[in-house]
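Incident review: delayed structure delivery

Summary: a single-chain prediction request sat in the queue longer than the usual turnaround. Root cause was a stuck worker, restarted by the on-call engineer. No data loss occurred. The affected request and its eventual output are reproduced below so the record is complete for anyone auditing the incident later.

Affected input:
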Amino acid sequence: QSMDSTLHYIHNDSDLSTNSSFSPEEERKSKVQDVVPQALLDQYLSMTDPSRAQTVDTEIAKHCAYSLPGVALTLGRQNWHCLKDTYETLASDMQWKVRRTLAFSIHELAVILGDQLTAGDLVPVFNGFLKDLDEVRIGVLKHLHDFLKLLHVDKRREYLYQLQEFLVTDNSRNWRFRAELAEQLILLLDLYSAKDIYDYLRPIAFSLCADKVSSVRWISYKLVSEMVKKLYMASTPTFVVDLMNELVEKFCRCHKWSGRQTFVFICQTISEDDCLPMDQFA
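Output delivered after worker restart:
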């Protein structure tokens, strides 16, 4: 009862009505649902209040972010309006650990919410995470394919221009970031056309093949071989021919021994995975 009266007092505060586009009563109604007891949801939503972090637990916002997909699943997409403001508050939290937690689960939330709500409410948050600290970006990168496959084709193509930004990290020694990028690009080959693969993913793959760290290079050889396979099966044969010519030019005829070694390893992967008929390979 005391909590209800407190909420009643807060939502009838005359000062709040001047700052909000909704009246206090409308704002209160936007958080109302009938799936779980309302007092329980109100308690959960109050976890983003900065004063709670000072008096209850400094990690409380992180706990809130961690639980959010579960709460969203319980309430259902029809009650997303109850959580939307809280989600946006957490997505702009000063602590990177809170934003990182959301970045790792945004693909799960997209499945729960469906394509319309994802396009309207999650894509802007996703775009913000792409420009965040590496600790946050890795969460988005690890599930890049899972998120992009849920978007419409036109929206998905917009991200082709941004993929090369993942080659740049705050710390150049963070090679696992580039290894994860190569892993994700293998999965992304199924989402894009032969032309998009050739124009946008090929330069990134070639850059990763010349990486200083061998673990990154080994995954990249697999990426290039899968690219050859995908382009060979495409209706336009020029893409795979151009790609193979570039492999010969860039690596086989490279003045550094490491480049020529890369060519041998790529050839090995292509033959082992049957990416090309043998006459074409020859």
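Verification: The mean pLDDT is 87.
Action items: add queue-age alerting; document worker restart procedure.
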